[in-house]
Amino acid sequence: MTKKYAICLSGLFCAFLFGVMALHLALPDRARSETENRTLQQFPAFTAAAVADGTFMEDTEDYLADQFPGRDGWTGMKARVEQMLGKTEFRGVYLCGDTLINRGDEPGALAEKNLSYVSALAEKTGIPVYLGLIPTASEIWRDKLPSGAPVSDQSAFIENALAETGLPGVDYLSVLKEHAGEAVYYRTDHHWTSLGAYYGYTALCNSLGITPVRIDSFTQKTVSEDFNGTLYSTSGVHWLIPDTMEYYVPEEGLTVTSWRSGKAEAAALYDRTYLEKKDKYSSFLGGNQPLCVIENPNAATDQKILLVRDSYADAMAPFLAQTFAEVHLLDLRYYRLPVAQYAAENGIDDIVVSYSVQNFVTDNNLLFLSQ
Fold first, then answer.
1. Strand runs (DSSP E) across 160-310, as ranges?
2. Cβ contact 297:275 at 8 Å
């Protein structure tokens, strides 16, 4: 390498750095990345305490990374280059042909604590409590994973969880395995599809001794063909064909009430404004909320069911509302009052603690079940 060439190369590199710096200063900071579906770090407040404990520098590094000009394009390019080099795992997500599958976490001490909290709820109430653990795509679509990919044995965890608590279970596992050849999960998102949610609904009804509504009673309606979900956001793999999203259950005759702000407000089974946004899965019931109640005077039974649940229940709730006169949905990330007391005050017939295995083994909020 000649001296002239080295100087030219160094000059180009410095020009690139100054160009990036200039863009960083000129462009406004973004509050949120729609591609990654998350809030971005803002410039941290400069305080003596933050400098002393090191958080100022850590937050500054996160700020520079999150606000890097063209970040979405760079992350996608990085993933594409890594794929060309033979990589199959991208930030904890496996690329399996045209499908993204989350690796997930191994159950640990928190999972054991969460099982004890479910048992504590069952001891506090005279209402039947069921434990429903939903296997994720890494279990049901295990054959799609790269050879030797390390993932936890969710089937074994579910079996052990039911044995440890002694509670009746909702057998989501068997019904999803039975229909594993169908599109029961999204290809770019960690949730089950509306079809997968229907099969979950049938498993729940069967566990309670209730006949589910047949799927041919519904008319499938495609509402989006450009859904890129959480795994698309996390992995940086941005070149797959987007998912299609369907609704099966009509809204007519249902009353939906939400407590997003701490008081009762009229809501909808589907919030179609989300279909124009990145987070299309939140179109089911309008996304995360402390409490939601769906009432159907024309339901197949007059029973009231309470689901202590994660976001998988959002897509299952429309089906449940065809069978149960009242469907109560509690999210412990936002709801802090005693669950047993809520069930007693609202005349609940059955309680189902319904979580995906991945969320169950990582959620710190199940401790509120023991209140």
1. 221-227, 243-247, 255-258, 265-267, 291-295, 304-309
2. no
Q: What is the pLDDT of residues 218-236, one digit of tens each?
A: 999 999 999 999 999 999 9
Backbone φ and ψ for 157, nearest 5 degrees, come out as: -65, -45
Q: Cβ distance 365 to 332 under 8 Å?
A: yes
Question: 128 phi and psi, to 5 degrees?
Answer: -55, 135
| Chain position carrying tokens 């074994």 | 156
Q: What is the separation of C-alpha 26 from the centre of its chain, rounded to a whole number of angstroms?
A: 35
* pLDDT tens digits for range 174-193: 999 999 999 999 999 999 99
CA distance 152 to 135: 11
pTM: 0.84
Tell me how crowded residue 22 is: count the other CB atoms within 10 A of its CB.
11
Burial of 217 (0-12, 13-18, 19+ CB in 10 A): exposed
Structure tokens at 142: 């295990």
DSSP structural state of residue 304: E
Q: Any bridge partners for residue 329, and if so which?
A: 292, 307
The pLDDT of residue 81 is: 66
C-alpha–C-alpha distance, residues 278 and 247, integer Å:
17
Contact 166, 179 (CB under 8 A): no
Amino acid at 140: I
SS3 assignment for 8-58: HHHHHHHHHHHHHHHHHHHCCCCCEECCCCEECCCCCCCCHHHHHHCHHHH
Measure the CA–CA gap between 239 and 95, rounded to whole angstroms: 11
Contact in structure between 357 and 133 (CB atoms under 8 Å): yes
β-strands 350-356, 304-309 pairing: parallel
What number of residues does the chain have? 371
Six token digits for residue 230: 């959480």
Residues of the chain with pLDDT under 50: 16-17, 20, 23-24
SS3 label, residue 329: strand
- Provide the H-helix boundaries in the chain: 3-26, 48-53, 55-66, 71-84, 109-124, 137-140, 154-165, 172-178, 194-207, 230-235, 312-323, 339-345, 357-360
